[in-house]
């Protein structure tokens, strides 16, 4: 698990008044883990900023595993998992309460009583496969909801292929890709790139291959960044 962090952006964005009309989409690369609650919360906050600004973006998700050593079948509660990750017993419930409240504030209903921990390598492979099918963003949303709100297993081939089918993709094609490990190298490449960039926690947003922002920032922060970058694009096009 990771925690929400302060913004790390150079230069610091300032609010601007700009029109998005006629500008190319802003490139946004997001390093994220299915197991990270702040990644889902941050996703909702970023979506609010997009709605507020109306600025076009081109988003691509990249894999990051917070617990690559976790088995496919983890036997234990959320308390057990967090203690393994280094939290003390008396820290767990206040932490979960804060996460659940933050999720609820953006319209998400996290249920840690039914959440099932698992190794996320296969889940990330599914997201990469869905990207090749033109449905990466839909797959990211579906798998996060399945994990945090529905208690679904997101570490097994058949369960993941079923999630693919639920967004209209071909179940058998998804299953075949997962069983073959066809996108495992893509996941590893994402993680290697994260190390090159010095990314040590998620969510982490890279705007226009130049500006890095760590954590589930407030929508206003994301909106300010988008407006600044849109203004730069507008000025460059003149």
Automatic annotation (TrEMBL):
Pfam families from the UniProt entry: DSBA
DSBA-like thioredoxin domain segment(s): 27-226
Region annotation Disordered: where it falls in the sequence: 1-22
CDD domains attached to this UniProt entry: DsbA_FrnE
Listed InterPro entries: DSBA-like_thioredoxin_dom (IPR001853), Thioredoxin-like_sf (IPR036249)
Name assigned to this protein: DSBA oxidoreductase
Species this chain originates from: Streptomyces camponoticapitis
